[in-house]
Amino acid sequence: MKRSYYLIALILLTFFVISFLTNIIGPLIPDIIESYSLNLTLAGLLPFAFFIAYGVMSIPSGMMVEAWGEKRVMMAAFGLAAVAALLFAVFPVYQVYVVSLFLIGAGMAMLQVAINPLLRVAGGEAHFAFNSVLGQLFFGAASFLSPLVYAYLVQRLGTPQAETDWLLRSLSALVPEGMSWISLYWLFAIVAGLMVLILAVSAFPKVERKEEEKTGALHTHLKLLKNPLVILYFLGIFAYVGMEQGVANWISAFLQHYHEVDPQSLGAKTVSRFWGLMTAGAVLGLVMLKLLDSRKVLAGFTLAAMICLAMALFGSRTVALWCFPLVGFFASVMWSIIISLALNSVREHHGSFSGILVTGIAGGAVMPLVVGALGDWLGLRLGMLFLYLCLGYILSMAFWARPLVNNATLGARQREKEQV
């Protein structure tokens, strides 16, 4: 198939929207706690509801894509997200919010499963690696921008400036007084609805899946789950996403509680910097992986993340404002290295294995909830120390991982040339 720049752009837009909807919960948590008078455990239940949907939907989504095709699944996913966001925007109560986040998370899981094989076909196999990295940059850009959009809306709704702006005036009329953060869900419903319309008028190619991209039958998954390595790498993804979301979701609440940082301005900007530096770190990681064995990169970046998290938790206000974003910078390479080590450690059934690994995103459900529960009991600072279990496990992977194929480095290529 000839490369389709339109479809590549559409997939990159999808990456952007997925991230925009996924990583906004953290900056909202202080407002959510205030609006519903929640303790930290009930606040932690919100990211749990969102990310547990990945654990539930990832493998079924692969089966749906094979049965219905990418276009129908993507339209259904955005349609589900639009309805869920609208449901909460119209009925802004806590219980509806939990259900809404689960449904939005289910839609995002469906999209994650559908778009990668589609990107390979639309962009061409030779350009797949480049386009995948480009997709992650769009994903990171949205994570960086979404807290800034939140800050812009909540600081302007209900002010005289809103009366002169059609969008702000409309949103002001729709949200309950004192709950301006709910305006984001009206925006999400509109964006997801527009994506359904865009997809409806877009032509999609037929995707012929490679054997390693196929989801596989139930017995294939059961066979893989009997392999201890599969479980160990699943736990690696579980630990990484749990750590990432466990930090990102509690940054703003931590800064507000311990350093009296306004969550609607500097708190939101700090979360934005966390995601922005994660994107920047991914670029550095690409360079490092050309120079060093991926396990050494993983060990170095994980140790640096552990040091930065300790400084953020126990340092001054200024140190916390700098070090929380630096945790994101050093976490940037973890996902890609763990995935590559995992897939390079088994000889077959890579599609089914990928589905099991993506199910590990459910770690983003469990860890923020555990941190919240511990925060109610011991205080949020000590609760966030639980995340060192995740970082410790990720660090251990740098020592026990034995991939069948190592990442190609410039030094290795030079030695190969000299041997020839």
The general outline is globular
Q: Which stretches of 5+ consecutive residues score pLDDT under 50?
A: none
CATH topology of the largest domain: Growth Hormone, Chain: A
* The CATH H-level homologous superfamily of the largest domain: MFS general substrate transporter like domains
Give the domain tally: 2
What is the mean predicted local confidence, pLDDT?
A: 86
**Overall number of strands:** 0
The number of helical segments is: 21
Q: Classify the beta-strand content into a percent band.
A: under 5%
CATH class of the largest domain: Mainly Alpha
CATH architecture of the largest domain: Up-down Bundle
Taking all Cα atoms into account, the compactness measure Rg is 21 Å
Quote the distance from N terminus to C terminus.
Answer: 36 Å
* Structural class by helix and strand composition: mainly alpha
Q: State the share of residues found in helices, binned by percent.
A: over 70%
The helix/strand series, from N terminus to C terminus, equals HHHHHHHHHHHHHHHHHHHHH
Task: Explain what the structure shows.
The protein is mainly α. It has two domains: 1-209, MFS general substrate transporter like domains (Growth Hormone, Chain: A); 215-420, Up-down Bundle (Growth Hormone, Chain: A). It is built from 21 helices and no strands. The chain has helices at residues 5-22, 25-36, 40-68, 70-90, 94-123, 128-156, 160-163, 166-174, 183-200, 218-225, 228-248, 251-259, 263-291, 294-314, 317-331, 334-343, 350-359, 363-378, 380-384, 387-400, 410-419. Helix 3 (40-68) runs antiparallel to helix 17 (350-359) and helix 13 packs across helix 15. It is globular, with a radius of gyration of 21 Å. The two termini are 36 Å apart. The mean pLDDT is 86.
